[in-house]
Specification:
mainly alpha; Rossmann fold; four-stranded parallel beta sheet; 12 helices; binds nicotinic acid adenine dinucleotide; binds adenosine-5'-triphosphate; binds magnesium ion; ligase; glutaminase activity; ATP binding
């Protein structure tokens, strides 16, 4: 990939889409992770620092302190307006109102957190006449590795054409502070969660696999070239298949 060209296209995309929508700017959830860091950086290049609001949305009992430091470092580096809203009280009020949620599995509870963050970002977008800028990369979008209407509930996906490994490359090129680039990717939905452990494969390998699948390569060839197990490959293809619905608008029955 020509990263210079990709960067310019993404910047134009953000400028054009927000311009067409007639909004005043962007709202981005800043987690201290690299996807949001790159997205916010490109949004600032497209719109200027005064039109990008970054919101850090920790859960006090769970989010590691390093995320707060990294989110702060990024916001300072970009010079954007930055707010912090703790989601713990909202999530626990939900749990109190829905008693069975306390015994729900960690995935169901985790998705609730992602959807709580989405609601807070849209609150600000509504108030300020801005768009919610998503941070999904191509790897996540292909795998459906995001919460439907949670972190997937956004107005634009500017880095949705970049594989995760390309997110790292472009981030280095733009001089994003290194600790955010080397940090292990995590959705932060439960204690100790990391993307690669949950997916059962590294991002380097999964990107290799996704690129080969995109070119229509045979599974046998992919197994040999990527050096992964048949179980890892079927887990990847299973995710793609299972999560196809996330990339469609909800179906409507034909009545005539
Ligand atoms: N065929 C179908 N057609 C239409 N809708 C269908 C469907 N199958 C399920 N559904 C709906 O989709 C729901 C399941 O999807 P969803 O609610 O998204 O839940 P699900 O895909 O099960 O879980 C989200 C995954 O994304 C990961 N995640 C979330 C957030 C952030 C990040 C990150 O990297 O930062 C990662 C998370 O760790 C988990 O692995 C079902 O409850 C149902 O409502
Ligand atoms: N604590 C948080 N504060 C604000 N936004 C958050 C928080 N956690 C998640 N989000 C939002 O959800 C998005 C999806 O999370 P995801 O983990 O995929 O991206 P990331 O944290 O930016 O990067 P990484 O994959 O390196 O962890 C984030 O980019 C961010 O917009
Ligand atoms: Mg993260």
């Amino acid at each position: 990939m020509d990263l210079e060209k990709a960067q310019n296209r993404i910047i134009d995309f953000i400028r054009n889409e927000t311009g067409k929508a007639g909004v005043n700017g962007a709202v981005v959830g800043i987690s201290g992770g690299i996807d949001s860091a790159l997205t916010a950086t490109l949004a600032v290049k497209a719109l200027g620092k005064d039109r990008v609001l970054g919101i850090y949305l920790p859960e006090s009992s769970l989010t590691p302190a390093v995320d707060s430091e990294d989110a702060n470092i990024l916001a300072d580096w970009l010079g954007i307006e930055y707010r912090t809203i703790d989601i713990s009280g909202i999530v626990s009020a939900f749990m109190d109102a829905v008693p069975e949620s306390k015994s729900a599995d960690r995935l169901t509870r985790g998705n609730l957190k992602a959807r709580t963050r989405m609601s807070l970002l849209y609150f600000h977008a509504n108030q300020l006449n801005r768009m919610v800028i998503g941070t999904g990369n191509k790897t996540e979008l292909l795998l459906g590795y995001y919460t439907k209407y949670g972190d997937g509930g956004v107005d634009l996906e500017p880095i949705g054409g970049l594989y995760k490994t390309e997110v790292w490359e472009l981030s280095r090129r733009l001089g994003i502070p290194e600790p955010l680039i080397t940090k292990k990717p995590s959705a932060g939905l439960w204690a100790g969660q990391t993307d690669e452990a949950e997916l059962g494969i590294s991002y380097v390998k999964v990107d290799e696999v996704l690129k080969m699948l995109e070119k229509g390569a045979e599974h046998e060839k992919i197994l040999n070239a990527a050096g992964i197990s048949a179980e890892q490959l079927s887990s990847v293809t299973g995710r793609i298949e299972r999560n196809k619905h996330k990339r469609k608008v909800p179906p409507v029955p034909e009545l005539y």
